[in-house]
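Appendix B: complex inputs.
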Amino acid sequence: MIPNKETITQAAERILPYIHRTPLITSKRINKIFNADIYFKCENLQKAGAFKTRGAINAVFSLNEHEFKNGVATHSSGNHAQALARAASIRRIKAYIVMPEDSSKVKIEAVKSYGGIITFCKPTLEARETTLALILEKTKAIEIHPYDNYKIIAGQATAAKEFFEQIPEIKTIIVPVGGGGLLSGTALAAHYFSSDTRVIAVEPEQANDAFKSFYSGSFVPSLNPDTIADGLRTSLGTKTFPIIQKHVHQIVTVSEKSIIEAMRLVWESTKMIIEASSAVPIAALLEKKFNFEGQKIGIVISGGNVDFDNLPW
Amino acid sequence: MIPNKETITQAAERILPYIHRTPLITSKRINKIFNADIYFKCENLQKAGAFKTRGAINAVFSLNEHEFKNGVATHSSGNHAQALARAASIRRIKAYIVMPEDSSKVKIEAVKSYGGIITFCKPTLEARETTLALILEKTKAIEIHPYDNYKIIAGQATAAKEFFEQIPEIKTIIVPVGGGGLLSGTALAAHYFSSDTRVIAVEPEQANDAFKSFYSGSFVPSLNPDTIADGLRTSLGTKTFPIIQKHVHQIVTVSEKSIIEAMRLVWESTKMIIEASSAVPIAALLEKKFNFEGQKIGIVISGGNVDFDNLPW
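Resulting structure:
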């Protein structure tokens, strides 16, 4: 069932013991540059380093004993892998994670540190899906998709719900879009908890499937995405796209150059580490992609998992 | 006059409107690695990115109109330059900053952004001192030394004073030592506000003048310091050394390898940007230079001004 006011509220209560209520921060320098009051919701300081923890905990803790007895499984090269492994370890069940063999060492180590059982595969979507199918068949584990899952979406919605509680005056909320889990959750949270807030999504130009899908009205897959914002390379899902169509106000795209400039600006101004995918909304401000001057803007900083051996500058 | 309970308290009140009362953070991962409760006092989130703001504000705001009418001056390639330029701009006086010509672009830009008037010189201590002497003669500005100044020391002492207010249970406080401004201030704050707290200083092996001075009992200058912890290359001062001799319990040294490992560990675990000089205390934990297991430890994270084009890994 598409998350609603009740199920998002239930998700918030369910996950509370296992997540951080992340802080908001502001930067005078950034506010001066953009002539706006910008609040950052720091999901980079979230458990396991990203908002993905919210959805993973909600999904794993929504399962009953019969469902979770054989563990959970997913394919992911990124933050969902860590988040699911952590959620499973808290519930003392197994997490089978299919990871492409070119995943960064940092992310592999993080999954291992939470006790995730990793199976490596070739770095193609097809290899990931066939490897996962084999594992699901062999283990009878339950698949927890990174975004195309209503429990995941309800979990991700709790970040924006908290944001509106912390600063109710936000009139625009900006989030990055990859598979659309955070975006659809944010849009639902705005709809139910702050209905006069405008929801804007930002996507790399070089992975602009959500932009194309949104404005054409029909699903366009992500083909050969080539962006440093590695969390945003995925296509929208069959569950996230309709929610986005209905509740998101605008999607804009940004260049790689702006993403890198935005990432560095946030590092320098806030002394906080944010990943490239999280810099994408700030890149949209640099490119002045919509009107924001003089307004109160909320930006979800989606994660802080960075490979320091491969910085983009 | 050497700062005492009253003058440190006055400094704390004087600077309060112009600084951040910086937060404490903890990291479960770091606590697990070291088997201790470690609290980080985040002076990297301080105004102008470092604790130096405290001393600079205290020094500038302690001057009377007659003293400050011609402005303030210093030589510094680092955080004191920014901090003094900012303090002067708040008081609407001039700040003349002598900087070595090889200073990082980031630091030069930061000084300029606060309106500092920069004079470049050759990158030697002699050139810095002679250039500053010329400027003092020409402008009649008042020199604000980066650390060998009791107002600066009293200002830096307020970081530890706040720390003890925020978490009174700290039984060991660890700080890096360069010129000794932060260390002497911390040691005085511990003496007056938390007298059962052990004060430990950590210094790079490759800039071990404080270590040698402390254990030989007589001043040893820093000769050809070669460390990535660029804030810690300076020698102790005539005002800081006697305070350190009297009130510091232990000084240990650490390798460059450990400093880099510690810096990266903090970046990864806390998602916070700390500069190499700030990683030095954590390097001492990695090298197990003293007994800390099972204890409550306070570490002052001195600053977060990093040149992202020159990371040490």
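Residues 150-166 of chain A form the longest helix (17 residues).
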